[in-house]
Amino acid sequence: MTELPDSADGGAHAWYRALLARCKDIAPVATAVVHPCDDLSIGAAVEAARLGLIEPILVGPKAKVEAAASAAKADISRLQIEDVPHSHAAAARAVELVRSGEAAILMKGALHTDELMHAVMADGVGLRTERRISQVYLMDLPDHDRPLLVTDAAINIAPSLADKRDIVQNAIDLAHVMQIEAPKVAILSAVETVEPKLQSTIDAAALCKMADRRQIVGGVLDGPLAFDNAISVEAARDKGIVSPVAGRADILVAPDLVSGNILAKMLTFVAHADAAGVVLGARCPIILTSRADAERTRIASCAVAVLMSQQAVLAIKPPI
Length: 320
Description:
Largest sheet: 11 strands, mixed
CATH architecture of the largest domain: 3-Layer(aba) Sandwich
Number of strands: 11
Oligomer: single chain
């Protein structure tokens, strides 16, 4: 892996740099980059390759891929290009590369999330598992003492209780990859008491009981919790909440996609968090970023996917 230059911003972005450092001794992971036909997506893929994180396989119309690389001043002369006619075919071909073992990660390029996820979710030829697919943002805030995992901000519009069980488990599994051994999971709502007219509070209580019955494992759950009670010890104390999670949450589980998306973007654009986004629950990690994301977010997302991929390899490696 290429060494990172010395930081020019003091202690800022330390989490980002530590994340990349964890990937230093991991070989570049074959990654199908889906329809990288704009300067942002092709540039991020080439930069991630330069840093030694991924070995990109560029899947898209060759002429458009080359034009995007030219616009981004990115050298793709040594990269494999899978020439397909359009974005729909790119998504399907990228999924095929993962199913055949030629790629271990998917990376979204210049196509709509729905188009990519349609190929991922396709019956019989997609990448579905028994687990519900969900998205997690990892957030490192300048004035907060620990990274936060926020879910789900991109995939599940109005998740059912069963969906939320998988959303929580996916996030816990990712927290383990990020070396958080027993993550504290806050199930968010507008209040911290169970209110029959507010479904999110009922779901929160049910999820906590599911954890008691080991239907969710590996984390410590509490909810419903309002956002302030989840991240502020003082706010939890003021409301008399006694909980191992309140004020100390590692994972924030939003009631629905709208609230999760607003929360994640607020933390990024207002609180200036360093962020990484990844989709879990499929046969491989999926790097899912938007055009508004900074290159640092795209690179950090690659690093998280690489660590997830490495964890999967170690999990199936036979003992010596």
